[in-house]
Amino acid sequence: MTGENDAADFTFDGSNMFEPLMAADPSFRGQWDRFHDEWRDEAEEPLYLALSELALHLIHHLEAGKTDRFSDIFDVVERWIVEGNRHVREAAIVGLLEDLQNPSLHRSTHPDRFKPWLRPQSAIWWAKLYAFWSDGTPLV
Hints:
Elements: H1 18-24, H2 29-38, H3 47-64, H4 70-83, H5 86-101, H6 120-135
Helix pairs in contact: 3-5, 4-5, 5-6
């Protein structure tokens, strides 16, 4: 992925990336706490798994029409992509955005219904993910 940040330039790493998400969406707190407790003894929490849980959480909220916090949530996602270290950025793109696009996770919605909340960089990566899966265009 492009846009590698040096260690001195990033704001978010795996240890602090979920703090602004909890402020943006307190309803995810219980799932995050359970996840964090389950992986507490590991050297590094598998961010992709946490973001898969977040994707399912967001899809369920979309299906229920509970989108009032989506603007704040996707502001955080944009910050992860722009201000995160390489690990956070890749997890946000490949862990979260890719799962949000997975049609098999949607029962009564369509992935494109998330588009109105995408910010500039998340929209770019959303399109790149679609291109990767539809015609094999590399994610660069």
